[in-house]
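Researcher: Re-running this chain for the archive, since the previous output was lost when a drive failed. Same request as before.
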Amino acid sequence: MKQTQVVGVLLALLCLGTTFDASASGTIPMQFCFRYNIDYDDDDASIGDDYFIEVDAGPGSAPKARGLKVRVEDLDADPADPHPFDGYASYNGVSPGCTPVLDLAVDHQILITTWSEALVGGNVITVRESQFHSVTFRDEHAFQETVNQGWPNPYVLHANHVKERHWRILAAAAFAQYRERGGLSGRTYFIYDEACPFAGGSCSLDGSVWLDPAGSEPYNRHKYGIVHELGHAMLYQTGAGQWFVDFLAPTGVCDAGRADDEGWREHSKEYQSAAASEGYANFYAALVFNDILDSDCRMEEIYSPNWDNDPATPADRAFNCTGDPDPIDQPTSATDYLGTMCDAPTLAMGTALDWQRFLWDASKGPDSLAFVDLVDIWVGSTPSTWCPNGWPVFPPPPPFLPPSPPPPPPWAPCWPSDRMIFYAHPLNGGPLTVDEYYAFTDAMELHGVHTGWIPM
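Model: Regenerated structure tokens:
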């Protein structure tokens, strides 16, 4: 297969330096910095974006290409040493998205090549056309000029204004890893620009991501959607495995509801295993693009949730991810959506919205948890062995409290909230202090995500 080459990988190039006077050796110091000239359908300063837009990109600017794979080649240099730089731009520090300062020979022609790959915090993110495509996208003609002392400072080059989807994917994913990595390093996240191989649409499987480019609402145009799927991949790459069964609860049993041909929704009632999995991924996306220290949290779905199940009220994709999702047009519940809007039975059920809000609240306040703690609790809850659907064959045992050991199978609880409650307790070796543990379980109880099998 012929390798796909795309013009527009290098979307903005800045050459920085305080002076361009040639030295005695005929060189000038030069630093190349890269930005992405991209946009998203959910790119709006009123929808979260405390970072990425307001901080990372800056008003009217473009996001920094954190950790971008770059090669600077001197076409007139000794063939044995033609590359002043061949590696990854920085992802943090004072010059994110920049190469080191390079000594370039005056009057030599240089060629800069960039790839749709980034190295952030020890983790590689690589965007490919498909799982069968062995190379990343690249631009071999992003920048080719002769080094001269007349280059302006800064030197800004917009090679092309084409807004290609693979750069949107890389920009969002690399920024997400810059913001939060869950304590992981040395991982590689493959993101494929094609539909999910087993179910269509977009998905995460075995630590990789598929983003469907087709349809009127392609996921690669939604940064929250991109990072949501990356969140699934990151949790898998903790080594805890992947909870992979049919997790959807029967339709028609919740006021939010789903049509028979629909999958899960932010507010649909699902078995708790599904609600926890999707809630964690949505929380990761919210955390990446919002400031946990702010009082607000907003994000956007790729569809328009009908929060109050009333077709007469207007629906909006953007919603509040800390309280009532749409308190003006579709008021429902600021805390427990499942308990307020969903029909019985609700035991061992949940919604992604409630799980997301629980995790957000657990990350705030004087006893707040770091994201790495929440990832640790996820791992300790052994998601690969969560209950898929229904209840175990045997009835639940008499109540027992942590840190008492759980009874042996078949009595052992297998729902995410029970596993997390037991693992997180400090006397069970969990990552939390006593105060953090009670803040964690209080947030869980507030948002109705606890099955009640293990009393808190």
